[in-house]
């Protein structure tokens, strides 16, 4: 969401919205909402204004008014850039769907890119790349993999995962939905190749191509794991590894949408999705991924392997022998 999204085109409305922002930064969200409503009386079709109004109402505790603002936003935001559908679903006022809200995620990280690392690592204690890298190294060693010929880092962001992988990969490719994130990581020279793409679309163009696919805190924006894994497994070479993280919950639901607009996956459902996808689970453990507003966010660290072709051939041969007998 660039600054262009936040201009109403009317000087007076913009001025009131700016005053509302300052009130919100000072903690008076109710007053900020009241002033934002005045701005929207001038420009009633300003999508970004309704998004901001919903946020002010939510933070003031007026959830009913926040939902009303987001319903208006949903009608105005055809591309879903502001994530109105997700915000409504997070407050049980609508259905989130099971796939990635592509326009919302792209806009979110385009806006977030310049301060991404400072916020995530410096303030939230984010450690997923080093935790995943350690588990990839351990699992690779158990199956005799010393180096990876090609790795694809999905949702590469500013290259935090790529920095960890670089020393053990011959050709490292980064994929991200955000052009701003791609620009940030390109300056570091970590990756041999960078592609701006939605991850399922990127995976669908590949067949038995990668020895390793990683996704650090990426599938939390995707919802249902099965379509993602269905695209990912064919992109792996036989014997290749996939490593990723999820936010976790202990309930019976396969997943639910948190107020943060990130999906939390059920532990049992996530394990089942790996089995259904035909992957062999090598590492599946819970850990604290980072902190959010001072509270620990528990997640799942996963490393799984696509069965080696030798095993498939051996099984085929065994089955053939049984039939002949």
From TrEMBL:
Q: Name one GO biological process term.
A: methylation
Please provide, alphabetically and separated by semicolons, the GO molecular function terms listed in this UniProt record. methyltransferase activity
Looking at the record's lineage, which domain of life comes first?
A: Bacteria
Q: Could you tell me which InterPro entries the record lists for this protein?
A: Methyltransf_12, SAM-dependent_MTases_sf, TPR-like_helical_dom_sf
Show where the Methyltransferase type domain sits: 152-241
Gene3D superfamilies given in the database record: Tetratricopeptide repeat domain, Vaccinia Virus protein VP39
Which Pfam families does this entry report, sorted A to Z? Methyltransf_12
Q: Does the keyword Methyltransferase apply?
A: yes
Keywords attached to this Swiss-Prot or TrEMBL record, sorted alphabetically, are: Methyltransferase, Transferase
Q: Does the keyword Cell membrane apply?
A: no
Protein's name according to its UniProt entry: Predicted methyltransferase, contains TPR repeat
**What organism does the record attribute this protein to?**
Devosia crocina
Question: Which lineage?
Answer: Bacteria, Pseudomonadati, Pseudomonadota, Alphaproteobacteria, Hyphomicrobiales
């Amino acid at each position: 969401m660039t600054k262009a999204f936040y201009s109403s085109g009317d000087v007076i409305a913009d001025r009131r919205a700016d005053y509302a922002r300052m009130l919100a930064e000072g903690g008076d969200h109710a007053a900020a909402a009241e002033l934002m409503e005045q701005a929207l009386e001038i420009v009633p079709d300003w999508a970004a204004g309704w998004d901001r109004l919903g946020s002010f109402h939510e933070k003031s505790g007026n959830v009913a008014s926040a939902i009303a603002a987001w319903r208006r936003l949903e009608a105005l935001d055809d591309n879903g850039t502001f994530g109105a559908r997700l915000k409504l679903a997070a407050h049980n006022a609508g259905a989130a769907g099971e796939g990635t809200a592509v326009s919302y995620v792209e806009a979110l990280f385009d806006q977030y890119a310049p301060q991404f690392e400072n916020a995530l690592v410096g303030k939230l204690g984010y450690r997923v790349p080093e935790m995943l890298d350690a588990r990839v190294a351990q699992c690779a060693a158990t199956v005799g993999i010393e180096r990876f010929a090609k790795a694809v880092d999905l949702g590469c962001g500013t290259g935090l995962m790529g920095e960890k992988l670089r020393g053990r990969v011959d050709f490292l490719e980064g994929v991200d939905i955000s052009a701003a994130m791609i620009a940030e990581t390109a300056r570091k020279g970590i990756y041999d190749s960078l592609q701006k793409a939605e991850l399922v679309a990127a995976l669908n163009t590949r067949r038995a191509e990668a020895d390793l696919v990683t996704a650090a805190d990426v599938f939390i924006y995707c919802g249902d794991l099965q379509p993602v894994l269905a695209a990912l497994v064919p992109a792996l070479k036989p014997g290749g590894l996939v490593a990723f993280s999820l936010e976790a919950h202990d309930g019976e639901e396969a997943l639910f949408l948190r107020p943060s607009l990130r999906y939390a996956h059920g532990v049992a459902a996530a394990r089942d999705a790996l089995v259904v996808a035909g992957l062999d689970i090598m590492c599946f453990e819970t850990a604290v991924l980072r902190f959010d507003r001072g509270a620990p966010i528990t997640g799942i660290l996963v490393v799984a392997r696509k069965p080696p072709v030798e095993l498939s051939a051996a099984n085929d041969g065994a089955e053939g022998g049984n039939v002949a007998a």
